[in-house]
Amino acid sequence: MTNIEPWIHIPDNSDFSIYNLPFGIFSTANSSKRVGIAIGDKIIDLPEVIRLGLLDSLNIPLEAAKNEFLNDLIALGKKTTNGIRKKLQKHLCDESSPLKNHDACFVDPSSATMHLPVKVGDYTDFYSSIEHATNVGKMFRDPENALLPNWKHLPVGYHGRSSSIVVSGTDIHRPKGQTKPADSDPVFGPSKRMDFELEMAFIIGKDSSLGETVSTDEAEDYIFGMVLFNDWSARDIQKWEYVPLGPFLGKNFASSVSPWVVPLEALDSFRVSGPEQDPKVLPYLQYSGTKNYDISLEVQLQPEGEDESSTICRSNFKYMYWNMAQQLAHHTVNGCNVRIGDMMASGTISGKEPDSFGSMLELSWSGSKSVGLRNGQERTFLEDGDTVIMKGFSSTDGVRVGFGEVRSKLLPAK
């Protein structure tokens, strides 16, 4: 990628470089919800840029930009959303651009409130990290045959609850439900094994029709962009309920997403080959080209009352056994239709090393060992008052594209 120099100041190691320009929804004390684009330590107010006339050739309706969600803008198609990014890149690098002297186009994030970026119609959670699936299988099934027979043949997934997906900064309450102690009948109460799951999610950017399938070759046309995703999990509730139909109350109480959606095209420079898939997958899951992405991921935990957080996990999205194109192809192979704004999460992203495991379940090996924090505290699972912070970025040859962060504090059960 050729380096380009913008006139706007961008702090060193900013996630929101000139190569990124992710989309989000923000508001201020003086403005309603609207589409914004992150650049450095500023938010570009898209309605103001449209009023300035800099995007006239794209014919963007003002109501698509002055909107509570990105869905209407996404619906205009990638030609339009990629056109917005390319034109803004050009103006941000042109010293004579009217944008440079139009302060109304730029908003200080400290004066803005970020909102859920898309209206999520449906949400699917996959289970696509072989390291995570193997770890869970070793803990709860058979150390010698950790993976279930279907795991290497199809991207395992389940339909989650879209209504409880919340934006970063939204605190959540410890959920209550049934659990089954080893030595007694089922009991009801707050979960005692609260966990995070380090995930990423892609957002559908194009509708398909009922009965239509989306191939691996077509999949990227249907993927608008990606966010960080924390799939909160109550492990003890989940363990008691999941047979025979899978996750329910242990998962559907909350999932947290980062506010900025990084378009898939901004990640093109970070494509890599995925793990070898053995045995060979069925034809509809086969693909060509590089479909995995090198995205460095990190999880931090900050106890209540502490000023500093502790990094407890470093992983990478490139480890995923099943890539997004395969996930979408499998999701639609039976004719299931997808809609703009649908969100599809990766499943927990774990690496091979113990410090790359993407959940407390794995880091503490189901509570059998403690995870140390920098202040001397220890954790097996999350405690009330803990804040979980997830970050992610890609970087190569001086080019950085990042996702910001998703953070949320765990509050006591209501």
Helical residues, percent: 10-25%
User: Structural class given helices, strands, pairing?
Assistant: alpha+beta
Annotation field: number of helices: 8
Shape: globular
At CATH level 2, the architecture of the largest domain is Alpha-Beta Complex
CATH superfamily of the largest domain: Fumarylacetoacetase-like, C-terminal domain
Q: Overall mean pLDDT score?
A: 97
> What is the CA-based Rg, rounded?
21 Å
Pick out the low-confidence regions. none
What percent of residues are in strands?
A: 25-35%
Name of the CATH class of the largest domain = Alpha Beta
State the oligomer.
single chain
Distance between the termini: 51 Å
User: Would you count the extended β strands for me?
Assistant: 26
What's the domain count?
Answer: 2
Q: What is the fold-level CATH name, i.e. the topology of the largest domain? A: Fumarylacetoacetate hydrolase, domain 2
What about the largest sheet?
A: 8 strands, mixed
